[in-house]
Amino acid sequence: MIFQGAMNALNPLHRVGNQIHEVIKIHEPHVSEEEGWERVLDVLSRVGIDPSRAKDYPHQLSGGMQQRALIALSLVNNPDIIMADEPVTALDVIVQSQVLKEMKSLQGQLGLSLIMITHDLSVIAEICDSLAVMYAGQIVEYGKLRNLFKEPRHPYTEALLNSFPSITGVKKELMEIPGAPPDLLNPPTGCRFHPRCMKVMDICLSEDPKIVSTNDKGYVACHLY
Ligand code: SF4
């Protein structure tokens, strides 16, 4: 797991190398001190941090390096799957792009599955193959990234994409999604998106749409399909 906000996820009182080494000690107690430290230094250099920085405390690293240290922490026990929760939100766009490239390349080298949890569509566009769009705690659309970006079917996915400016495409007025996200303790009846949906129909107010397969285009939960 790669947690959000590296500054809060790393312990400020312990050296970065020790924090990574601790993960090996806890999960693989049979690994010797020497082999453990070799792995720590190796994983730091894999994520682009000079191994000599293992002695640094988190505050001595830049934001980008802290995020890389968290990635190292998640890699050190050779996982098959990494779940990253808003892994680059706290970084500026240039460092974001470097860290995302690093993650993509590590994913290829190590044969990992990477699950990104983010609200940032540009991050998704850069790194993901498939995309699941969630609204009010439910998956409302799922499919290949290219299909979803080119031809969104759920009105929420469509509105999200239309509220995001395109750098290269035609300049057009950005769309807003009216209203506010619902109270999840007391969600709307029927389709949870209905109070904000431009295409709402009578059935949407009372019946929760089931997610259905739409052939090669993926899955969608909407009474329009
Ligand atoms: S089910 Fe109805 S309210 Fe929900 S997204 Fe589809 S059209 Fe809109």
Architecture overview:
The chain contains nine helices and six strands. With 225 residues, it is α+β, with helices and mostly antiparallel strands. The chain has two domains: 121 residues, P-loop containing nucleotide triphosphate hydrolases (Rossmann fold, 3-Layer(aba) Sandwich), CATH 3.40.50; 91 residues, no CATH class. The strands form two sheets. A four-stranded antiparallel beta sheet has the order 3-4-6-5. Helix 2 crosses helix 3 and helix 4 runs parallel beside helix 5. It is elongated. The model has no long low-confidence stretch (mean pLDDT 90). Bound molecules: iron/sulfur cluster. Iron/sulfur cluster (SF4) binds next to loops.
Question: What labels would you give this structure?
Answer:
alpha+beta, 6 strands, 9 helices, 225 residues, 2 domains, four-stranded antiparallel beta sheet, Rossmann fold
Structure at a glance:
This protein is an alpha+beta fold.
The end-to-end span amounts to 35 Å
Q: How many domain modules?
A: 2
| Large-scale geometry | elongated
Strands, total number? 6
Main structural class: alpha+beta
Write the H/E string, N to C: HHHHEHEHEEHHHEE
List the helices and strands and how they pair.
Blueprint: H1 6-9, H2 16-27, H3 33-46, H4 63-75, E1 81-85, H5 93-110, E2 113-117, H6 121-127, E3 130-135, E4 138-144, H7 145-150, H8 155-162, H9 202-206, E5 212-213, E6 219-220
Parallel strand pairs: 1-2
Antiparallel strand pairs: 3-4, 4-6, 5-6
Helix pairs in contact: 2-3, 3-4, 4-5
